[in-house]
């Protein structure tokens, strides 16, 4: 029997978040996956492992066709070059076409974005425009976009609702904000065609419980949990610098909303399912922080709605890994705000999204990935 799966193009599926999204799409039984990745910050091995995890989850006696449907077709290419995206849509025209796109690929380092802004605008904005243009050419009008809580900057209220003002403070944050704006304008231009959902991620962390896929950043991790995990396998022996312990938070260190990567990835499958539902767009109003719009565009926070301090995270990773962390309190870092947590109510109501996994599972899975792959994907194919 022919596979009833719809084809979804995931840009950047070899990366940390994209690989978990690809896995959840495959596990849902509803989608097959094609990706384009230039492996700027990832390894092809991740895609092979995603397929393996999905195939291992098939019931005994699954057919070769069922197994084949879980292979990820990968184009090694750069989405800032339009012809490289076009080729994919062209190839799929004769195979039932691409149903929708999850646009994940981007550069994401806040500090670096201020040093090489043109590269960030080219990679994150030009690429988004290219993608929209090619989608329009091939009449593919379903889009889920990887946005970030960084679009809120320093928000006036916490937990942060989607209607909070959008005032990103970094070049990276502006590329996410501008991409959202561009997508929204495109949706407004043709409400009878386009449907798009932006998902504003808070702090994704952890890994798939198999320990086969996880975050493998090149160089020093910019995020706290992978940094702690790498310290526990012997990297960065100088220990952790904690930037300020005199904030107005329960233990004085900064509080963030950490969400298990599998919860976050599952949110994308829910978003794909929600795209065709007209009612979610009806109450748009101020909900995306942009003011009212006539198009079918919606933004949702993906967070747990619960904050954890830096010290909470160190403590939890210490329990998971058994490693005794060396920490040092240093001065506050410019631009850090005491607390950033999501108000996830809208996603819970309209997408039926719920971040179920707790901090213990997040740290256990992070450690499982790191201890199984102390050098990440490299040399381990
Ligand atoms: N990780 C986080 O904490 C976080 C938080 C909020 C939002 N996001 C967003 O989520 C998305 C994924 O983040 P991630 O942590 O998985 O990053 P990642 O670097 O692990 O993954 C990004 C993937 O996109 C690829 N890529 C980048 N530019 C490309 C290009 N021009 N052409 C083709 N492929 C390209 C990379 O090689 C990589 O495989 C990004 O859009 C990021 O802005 C991430």
Automatic annotation (TrEMBL):
Q: Where is the NAD-dependent epimerase/dehydratase domain positioned along the sequence?
A: 8-279
Q: Name one GO molecular function term.
A: UDP-glucose 4-epimerase activity
User: What's the protein name?
Assistant: UDP-glucose 4-epimerase
Name the pathway.
Carbohydrate metabolism; galactose metabolism; Carbohydrate metabolism; hexose metabolism
CDD domains, from UniProt? UDP_G4E_1_SDR_e (cd05247)
Q: Which InterPro entries does the UniProt entry name for this protein?
A: Epimerase_deHydtase, NAD(P)-bd_dom_sf, UDP_G4E
Q: Does the keyword Flavoprotein apply?
A: no
Q: Which cofactor does it need?
A: NAD(+)
What chemistry does it catalyse, as a reaction equation? Answer: UDP-alpha-D-glucose = UDP-alpha-D-galactose
Q: According to the UniProt entry, what is the EC number of this protein?
A: 5.1.3.2
Q: Name one GO cellular component term.
A: cytosol
What are the leading ranks of the lineage? Eukaryota, Fungi, Dikarya, Basidiomycota, Pucciniomycotina
Presence of keyword Isomerase: yes
Sorted alphabetically, which keywords does the UniProt record give?
Answer: Carbohydrate metabolism, Galactose metabolism, Isomerase, NAD
